[in-house]
Design a protein that fits this description.
The structure holds 3 protein chains of 3 kinds.
Chain A: H1 2-6, H2 15-22, H3 32-63, H4 77-80, H5 105-113, H6 122-127, H7 134-146, H8 154-158, H9 161-174, H10 179-187, H11 189-224, H12 231-245, E1 252-256, E2 259-264, H13 272-287, H14 329-338, H15 343-350, H16 359-386, H17 395-410, H18 419-422
Antiparallel strand pairs in A: 1-2
Chain B: H1 4-10, H2 15-23, H3 27-31, E1 36-41, H4 43-47, H5 53-59, H6 61-69, E2 72-74, H7 79-82, E3 87-89, E4 95-100, E5 104-106, E6 109-118, E7 121-126
Parallel strand pairs in B: 1-7
Antiparallel strand pairs in B: 1-2, 3-4, 4-5, 5-6, 6-7
Chain C: H1 3-18, H2 21-45, E1 54-62, E2 67-73, H3 77-92, H4 102-121, H5 125-134, H6 136-146, H7 151-179, H8 197-214, H9 223-230, H10 233-243, H11 245-256, H12 260-287, H13 291-312, H14 315-346, H15 365-378, H16 385-398, H17 402-426, H18 443-461, H19 463-489
Antiparallel strand pairs in C: 1-2
Helix pairs in contact in C: 1-2, 1-4, 2-3, 2-4, 3-4, 3-10, 3-14, 4-5, 4-6, 5-7, 6-7, 7-8, 7-9, 8-11, 8-12, 9-13, 10-14, 11-13, 12-13, 12-17, 13-14, 13-16, 13-17, 14-15, 14-16, 14-18, 14-19, 15-17, 15-18, 16-18, 18-19
Classes of the chains: A mainly alpha, B alpha+beta, C mainly alpha.
Chain lengths: 428, 133, 490
């Protein structure tokens, strides 16, 4: 605790955690159990994420404005083989050392046989909901679309004349020879633009997760190889990953026939960090929106904040216990992760609570822990980028860091925050 | 009087910056009459960035341009003029917080040399690459 | 034909108490199953054309005193006998985990089974009293050994009240026999019609208080909430399900059947007491914070219906009264059984603490679902046995006592109020994160509730399957009541 020697200790309610962050730690306590849990869940998250990003890009680039997108979750081979920019031989920057650039083998096996472990026509797996729950990915996308103004230039661009011009060309090309849709477009252009904006967020989120999937796979591999010893090790790896990926482009290309329409060209200079990662963390980890089916809120009684920036329904505040109802996005994700848990995590869950029966909740809590660690990585990355090193000799700089950490912790002062819960191993 | 680019090229401390500006194709822009105020990170500043950050940026020119533009402000601002200001708006579009008192600080960077006059503007040398946000 | 119903549980109790725990447990279940099977056999042999006592057994025993071993059943007692054995089986499987001293526990439960069966079958007043008093001791021990925090207090209170009840019944019986100069204590030998109306009224009142304590009726109920709450779930199932029914059984058998004239005279008063019980029970239940206490008070209310129906004395209402005894026995047993599971698993009965038990993963979904169903049955939702019985009660009583009946109907709406409170607080809402690490409720803990639920639904859809056994007895019973009224008027 070098920092506290130079400036007086924090008096914040989360002082202990702030001091831990100042010492280069994570909000998640550094225990072996926590490390095992979060790495295990990163791996289980990475497999469906490998599907999410491919399908998000597929929808954004190919399905586009299909008015009846029944088969948007039926990923064509082309997108299963789509080389990840960060994995395999062809990678621009190879984060994922061992894996291939195409879809993960566990994902392919699951898509083939599903939970039933039977090879059935794809349509039956789909209708039986024995598949990857893309609805979760779309819920995240919608959270980003709905919570605007979280930094970055993406949103402003979506309102610009340039963007609308690009959209116009793509829409006209897409519905060429379809007088009905073209007529509708003439009557209600804004509706079409809004739909395309949504698709741009599909692309945005897809490109964000394209990075995260191999990062999480890599973390799991490194943990298995014994390279991670502590929770801060895992966090630091994420911080590095954030800086490596920070300058990657965010764009939206649409392929109509053989023609590529650049709705958001790479040349706009949109960056992974500013236009995707930070808004994603803000929208999905912190804000989102109340989920239908878990709890009733009365907006008149001010149970829902008036300002969108005060929304607090993300994973960091989530009450994981009332899951199990069909269609709740977190439950969908937990269901997806359940299929890909590493064996050590399955064994671990067997020992606690109701074992097999409430594994969904147990892994949900683990996921919450792991996302506190990811958020810690984001906080540390922001501190690195915008503030001062933790060992800065200047006390004034340390005080600025302290202010930043305290401001971040202020967001967890509301009673819904689970920061206190995850300090304790009994929360499971 | 030499222009901004010429000053940078002539100084050994700006090798990374010059490479980046060249790769990003911003040389011409910095030779415009301006005037411009440039917060120029020296080589140590770039070295402080986490590994991989620069590699990725060099592969993605528009993104590199954006970061570099964040270090440039339209107009000529000397330290004397900056004393009364708290923010400047960069060419990138995002604001740059300025604290110019006993110590001259640009966001989380500290100026290690200031008011270097060029024909088309002014250069302040900073010890950290500043980032938006 | 009827002796096995005494022998099986009594021999079972002795065997269970002395055998190894591994053998004693299945043996206890086996003996309650055997007596249940025997009763089902009796149902097949029961003559539906006759309202008289059937399967009679008679042996002289202690002649000087007039105590005979005289047994028999009719449509009033046979369904209650079945309920008795069924609930014994349920009680044996209530909250078995970590039960201490199982042999004594199971032995006492079988003893109670035998005692209650004996009381229901006795056709001799002295024999009835012996059985009526016999099961107090096992109940006292069950409450005092396996009860809750204040079990000592509750057990003593229970013993005092019910002993007084027994004494009053003895006084009533002796007075009736001697004053009427009946030749023996045999039920069929009693010649109450020899008495004038005034002594009849006095004797009936004594019996009413005696049985009223047991039922319990307001204002004689004060022992009951404490006892029900402190007793273990298994004990409460038996106490509420069948033991309290001895009170209403006594009212019908030794009040209505024995003193038709006097009964008719005080009927309006009885209807008022019944109605007060109903309203008092419902309103008190609404005020409770403890779910077991809430169910206990609901029991007071539902027993009131039986008194109102019995007081009305129409063919339909008496039929309804007996049906309500069975219905209430089943529903209350289910409620106490489920509340027992909830308390055992969550460690509390506090409405303010419990929440979100419907949670499919971390809650008690099946238990909650059954609790909701039990609440619906108790509140008289159609399609469940509670509705069938209460509807007959209301329909039968309305002509005789319109205003008390209307008040009863109204407060059956209050039943829905407190069950909605109970269910809304415990089953719905958000599971509390800091508490919700409840153990799983295994199927072996739950199946008795499923059995009860199946019966409640079956009789709810097919009330005739129950009523056809009762009707042959109530029809002549009510005919006699009516002829006595005509005689009285003349």
């Amino acid at each position: 605790m070098t920092t506290t020697l130079k400036i007086p200790p924090s008096t914040h309610p989360y002082a202990e955690i702030i001091h831990r962050l100042e010492a280069g730690g994570s909000m998640l306590p550094d225990t072996e159990e926590n490390l095992m849990q979060i790495i295990g869940i990163y791996k289980a998250y990475a497999v469906p994420m490998d599907f999410y990003w491919r399908d998000l890009l597929y929808i954004a680039e190919r399905v586009f404005l299909d008015p009846l997108p029944f088969f948007k979750y039926f990923l064509p081979q082309e997108y299963l083989d789509l080389p990840n920019h960060y994995a395999g031989e062809t990678a621009d920057f190879r984060v994922w050392q061992k894996g291939e650039a195409s879809a993960h083998p566990e994902l392919l096996e699951f898509m083939d046989k599903g939970e039933l472990k039977k090879k059935l026509p794809k349509l039956f797996h789909h209708l039986w909901h024995d598949r990857i729950n893309m609805e979760f990915a779309e819920a995240c996308m919608r959270a980003m679309l709905w919570h605007q103004g979280m930094g970055g230039l993406f949103y402003d661009y979506l309102e610009s004349e340039e963007y609308l011009g690009n959209c116009d060309r793509a829409i006209k090309a897409y519905f060429k020879g379809n007088p009905l849709m073209l007529g509708l477009y003439k009557l209600f252009p804004e509706m079409f633009y809004e739909k395309v904006r949504e698709l741009s967020y599909y692309a945005n989120l897809g490109l964000f997760w394209e990075v995260m999937a191999p990062v999480f796979f890599e973390m799991s591999d490194r943990y298995d190889a014994g390279e991670f010893k502590t929770v801060p090790d895992a966090m630091d790896f994420l911080v590095n990953g954030i800086f490596i990926a920070a300058g990657r482009p965010i764009y939206h290309h649409v392929y109509i026939g053989d023609q590529c329409y650049e709705l958001i060209p790479k040349s706009k200079g949109f960056m992974w960090l500013y236009e995707a990662a930070l808004p994603y963390v803000e929208a999905v980890f912190y804000r989102t929106a109340p989920f239908r089916g878990t709890k009733s809120y009365n907006a008149q009684a001010q149970q829902v904040p008036a300002d969108q920036k005060d929304f607090h329904y993300g994973i960091l505040y989530a009450d994981v216990f009332p899951v199990g109802t069909a269609g709740i996005p977190p439950t969908l994700l937990m269901q997806d992760m359940l299929h890909f848990l590493p064996p050590y995590l399955v064994d671990y869950y067997q020992q606690y609570c109701r074992g097999e029966d409430d594994m969904l909740i147990q892994l949900g809590i683990t996921f919450q822990r792991s996302m506190y660690n990811v958020t810690s990585a984001v906080i540390q990355a922001l501190r690195t980028a915008l503030l001062y090193p933790l060992d800065d000799p200047n006390p004034e700089h340390l005080r600025k860091n302290r202010q930043f950490f305290e401001a971040q912790m202020d967001r967890f002062l509301r009673p819904e925050a689970r920061l206190n819960d995850i300090q304790n191993q009994d929360y499971r | 009087m030499p222009n901004i680019v010429e000053i940078a090229v002539s100084n050994d401390a700006f090798q990374t910056l010059v490479t980046a500006v060249t790769v990003a194709g911003l040389v011409e822009a910095l030779q415009q009459p301006g005037p411009l105020t440039v917060f120029a990170p020296n080589d140590q500043a770039f070295a402080k960035l986490l590994p991989g950050t620069v590699d990725t940026l060099v592969q993605n020119i528009p993104q590199l341009q954006r970061i570099l533009k964040y270090h440039v402000v339209a107009g000529r601002y000397t330290t004397a003029e900056l004393k009364d200001l708290t923010t400047l708006t960069s060419l990138e579009g995002s604001p740059i917080p300025i604290a110019c008192g006993d110590i001259f600080e640009v966001k989380n960077a500290t100026a290690i040399a200031s008011d270097i006059e060029a024909s088309n503007g002014i250069i302040h040398v900073i010890d950290t690459v500043i980032l938006m946000g | 034909m009827l002796t096995p119903l005494l022998l099986i549980p009594l021999l079972g109790a002795i065997a269970v108490a002395f055998l190894k725990p591994q053998i004693s447990r299945p043996l206890a279940a086996l003996s309650s199953l055997a007596s249940l099977a025997w009763i089902i056999y009796l149902f097949t042999q029961f003559n539906l054309q006759s309202g008289a006592i059937q399967f009679s057994e008679f042996h002289r025993w202690v002649e000087p005193v007039g105590l005979n071993y005289s047994l028999g059943v009719d449509g009033l007692s046979l369904p209650l006998l079945a309920l008795n054995s069924l609930l014994t089986l349920i009680a044996l499987y209530t909250n078995r985990n970590n039960l201490e001293r199982t042999r004594l526990h199971d032995g006492l439960i079988l003893l109670i089974n035998g005692g209650i069966a004996g009381a229901l079958m006795s056709q001799n007043l002295l024999l009835f009293i012996i059985f009526y008093e016999l099961e107090l001791i096992p109940f006292y021990l069950l409450i005092n050994i396996w009860g809750g925090e204040k079990r000592g207090y509750a057990a003593t209170k229970f013993l005092l009240y019910t002993a007084v009840s027994g004494l009053l019944v003895i006084v009533g019986f002796l007075g009736t026999t001697f004053a009427s100069q009946s030749p023996s204590f045999e039920f069929t030998d009693l010649q109450v019609q020899n008495l004038d109306l005034i002594p009849q009224l006095v004797l009936l009142t004594i019996l009413l208080i005696g049985f009223g304590i047991k039922t319990p009726l307001v204002p004689l109920h004060t022992w009951m909430p404490d006892t029900y709450v402190e007793a273990s779930p298994a004990t409460t199932v038996l106490l509420g399900g069948i033991f309290a029914k001895l009170g209403t059984y006594g009212l019908l058998r030794f009040g209505l059947q024995l003193f038709p004239t006097a009964w008719q005279t005080i009927a309006p008063g009885l209807a008022i007491i019944g109605t007060v019980s109903v309203i008092y029970g419902a309103i008190s239940a609404i005020a409770q914070r403890d779910i077991k206490r809430m169910v206990a008070y609901s029991s007071i209310g539902h027993m009131g219906y039986i008194l109102v129906a019995a007081a009305a004395g129409t063919e339909l209402s008496v039929l309804g009264a007996i049906a309500q005894m069975i219905a209430h026995g089943l529903i209350l047993a289910l409620l106490f059984f489920l509340v027992g599971i909830v308390e055992k698993t969550t460690g509390t009965r506090d409405l303010d603490i419990l929440n979100g038990l419907m949670n499919p993963i971390r809650g008690l979904p099946l238990t909650s679902a059954l609790l909701i169903l039990a609440g619906m049955a108790s509140a008289g939702i159609p399609g469940l046995i509670g509705f069938a019985a209460e509807f007959i009660v209301f329909q039968g009583s309305f002509m005789a006592f319109p205003i008390p009946t209307l008040l009863c109907i109204l407060s059956s709406g209050l039943t829905a109020v407190y069950f909605v409170i109970l269910i809304n607080r415990t089953c719905f809402g958000k599971l509390d994160n800091s508490r919700a690490y409840y153990a799983r409720v295994s199927f072996s803990q739950q199946w008795p509730a499923l059995v009860l639920t199946a019966i409640i639904i079956y009789f709810g859809l097919q009330p005739n399957a129950l009523l056809r056994w009762i009707e042959p007895t109530t029809t002549p019973l009510v005919a006699e009541l009516h002829s006595s009224i005509i005689a009285l008027r003349e």
